Amino acid sequence: MQFTNEVKWNLMDFVIAGFLLIGTGLIFDFAYRKIKNKKILIAFCAALLLLFFLIWAELAVGIFGSPFSGS
User: What pTM does this model have?
Assistant: First the structure.
């Protein structure tokens, strides 16, 4: 919105993005504190990061065509 007119976020978009970022960070922190096995921790964090990126991409451009994709 600052550099181009092609991006138009409203307040709800910022709230959802903040929730995704903060929620993912809190889950990472919780997992780091609770999971002692490093291999399981790395696998869990990789899966969480993949899930985060899939949700972000779905909300941004609708790669799966779900009803909440923003289209």
Answer: 0.81
Cβ atoms of residues 20 and 49 within 8 Å: no
Per-residue DSSP letter, 68: T
Give the DSSP letter string of 15-53. Answer: HHHHHHHHHHHHHHHHHHHH---HHHHHHHHHHHHHHHH
Residue 38 has pLDDT above 90, yes or no: yes
The separation between the first and the last C-alpha atoms of the chain, rounded to the nearest angstrom, is 18
CA-to-CA distance for 53 and 44, rounded, in angstroms?
14
Chain-centroid distance of CA 51 in Å reads: 7
* Interhelix angle 38-61/11-34, nearest 10 degrees: 170
- 20-32, pLDDT tens digit by residue? 999 999 999 999 9
Tell me which residue has tokens 């976020």: 9
